[in-house]
Design goal:
By secondary structure, the chain is of the alpha+beta class. It has three domains: 83 residues, 2-Layer Sandwich (Ribosomal Protein S8, Chain: A, domain 1); 77 residues, RRM (RNA recognition motif) domain (Alpha-Beta Plaits, 2-Layer Sandwich), CATH 3.30.70; 85 residues, RNA-binding S4 domain (Structural Genomics Hypothetical 15.5 Kd Protein In mrcA-pckA Intergenic Region, Chain A, Roll), CATH 3.10.290. 26% of the residues lie in helices and 29% in strands. The strands form four sheets. Strands 10-15-14-13-11-12 form a six-stranded antiparallel beta sheet.
Length: 259
């Protein structure tokens, strides 16, 4: 069995990690491939970090498409072959005429949760303009939602299962940025990458809206490095690329913004 207490010692998302450890122990005992519920990006980052030290099991995350934010993990003994095809997912189309009553991501999620399901059973929600949305869920709740999800906002909807290959994923918009800064402080790099003032960025950092590698960072002076991922709630993500020192001993940083 896995060293449960050692893995949980410094966990930020202790309850989530404990559930994943329990599933991993199930996989070890049964010699079968098991799946977790959906994990948020911060939870998934912590699970990856914890299990990276272990050789007993293999953990494979997948959320239905490469850029998926919420993902499930398939877990198996390290002796067993495993890949993303072992992560069980269902895709639903929620179709309706939203031309005169536009629905947001929150509206679709709220209507789904209003049927009585829990958040852990739902993955990403992909909006389809005024036609509705596509949602990714665990297979066991798909039949229930097909009959129970009949309205979003004021709009009647028809919910039906579709093939994962029918997912309509919009590729993220990407912007390449080069900046020269006096330091690698989070507020300096993030303000350059997201195109906002340093004081405004400091306010976002202080209010807990900024994460580095999916962990909340509340200090503007925190130093980022090449390979780090900076995310701001509602504003997308920023990847820190190559860093070089100029002749004036400043930092020339390559940034990639996804939004």
């Amino acid at each position: 069995m896995l060293p449960r207490e050692d893995l949980l010692k410094t966990a930020e998302h202790r309850d989530c990690l404990a559930r994943v450890i329990d599933r991993a122990n199930d996989a070890i005992r049964s010699w079968e491939i098991v799946c977790t519920d959906f994990l948020s990006p911060p939870e998934l980052a912590e699970v990856k970090a914890a299990f990276a030290r272990l050789t007993d099991v293999t953990v494979v995350p997948w959320g239905g498409y490469p850029q998926a934010e919420r993902q499930r993990c398939a877990i198996a003994r390290s002796e067993l072959p495993i890949d993303t095809s072992h992560v069980e997912l269902s895709v639903l189309e929620v179709a309706g005429n939203f031309l005169f009553d536009t629905a947001t991501h929150r509206d679709f999620l709220g209507s789904m949760l209003g049927t009585g399901i829990v958040r852990d059973k739902t993955g990403d929600i992909l909006l389809s303009g005024d036609r509705g949305a596509q949602v990714i869920v665990t297979p066991e709740i798909a039949p229930f939602l097909e009959t129970s999800l009949v309205q979003v906002r004021s709009v009647p909807v028809k919910t039906r299962a579709i093939e994962p290959s029918e997912l309509k994923v919009r590729p993220p918009k990407v912007k390449e940025i080069t900046t020269v800064e006096a330091s690698m402080r989070l507020d300096a790099i993030a303000s350059a990458g997201f195109g906002m003032s340093r004081s405004k960025m400091a306010g976002l950092i202080g209010s807990g809206d900024v994460r580095v590698n999916w962990k909340e960072v509340s200090q503007s002076k925190y130093n980022v490095k090449s390979g780090d991922l900076v995310a701001i709630r509602g504003k997308g993500r920023l990847e820190v690329g190559e860093v070089n020192i100029t002749k004036k001993e400043r930092f020339r940083v390559q940034l990639t913004r996804f939004y």
